[in-house]
């Protein structure tokens, strides 16, 4: 198209997934022209956006980091700034940072079968200018939640509160909480991170939860990884520790799934040992669901429990009746005084960055599509996406998806194809939700997300070993993957 730039691949998002996708693409297809479009003004995605106290990963960095680049720090449960530095150093080492176009928000993407490409409408977030470009492949690597706002329920009486209300996703740089009474509403990973981080400075921090979550202490420093690095060297140690930690994550998840009662009792025993004697463990650390029905919260070195033992923090389980001028009133009649209220109430899920997709003029209704191998959508040509694991380190899945994407491109090249469209052999195949995960932020949006089928290759797998067989070693050719050149459509 005259006057419109054309690229072979456009990657949307310069975070953990986008940088990983760019690496694999460069390595396997150095001849392809690509760019990363990033709506914000900086790389790093989540790890640049979130600035709340104590921001950290709840997965070890030997698996949460990239397979191709060792994690070199001694702390395996790392804080946000360390992870952000790791991402940006990785991008700089491989020249990926030079391919990022900042303040480029993709508003819409329209596929044309006649032209065999996508046309992207882009808004410059810094100037408001609208531009366009075309690409053969679109790779959506922006995660699954909205970057411009978090989820905050409607709390009665919020306007009456005379203190400060903040959401972790929009943490003010100048928020002074020294000597202040803080109430953190929530019980997920963000809340259990914020509580100990603020407790050292605030007068007191109360975590107010409607229902408890499973919380487990974990060492922030991986002693075995440190020893192996000295014995084997960085590269070999990284491979060994990564394999070991993948196996450990899988074993813990499988144990919780197969023996939920035993897992519940074991977690309770660990909690009781970490908390003060006589603490009401069953009231505040005994969820109504089984372990790993929702993600387990890891607290490095048991910092949450230490803050409770020191009297600097507490946990309250109850329902909010209303905000008051000076705090939060519970349905029980108890009032929690507060100078600052932190609404650690979760995320707003937004698939594909909110990009409006269409194919040959027809809007794509994501809820009517089915996920193909967890990387493409039925009926949507030349589009790939990156969604990681919910039951282990996100990046383990991202690496496999990117490898598969590059293998698919090679297959197309070798056989003279340039268009790829997944189509179920049985259009009436039973389907179920995209993710088998009970977390509130997923359930609020599940009806707007793609579906998954009841058989391969239409499953959204959460099993690393199965995905290794399917995505890394399995055949690319598939009768349900319609491949074509710009001139003639044939079956794979």
UniProtKB/TrEMBL annotation:
Family, similarity comment: Belongs to the FAD-binding monooxygenase family.
Pfam families noted in UniProt: FMO-like, NAD_binding_8
Keywords in alphabetical order: FAD, Flavoprotein, Monooxygenase, Oxidoreductase
InterPro entries: FAD-binding_MO (IPR051820), FAD/NAD-bd_sf (IPR036188), Flavin_mOase-like (IPR020946)
Name of the protein this chain belongs to: NAD(P)/FAD-dependent oxidoreductase
Source superkingdom: Bacteria
Cofactor(s) this protein requires: FAD
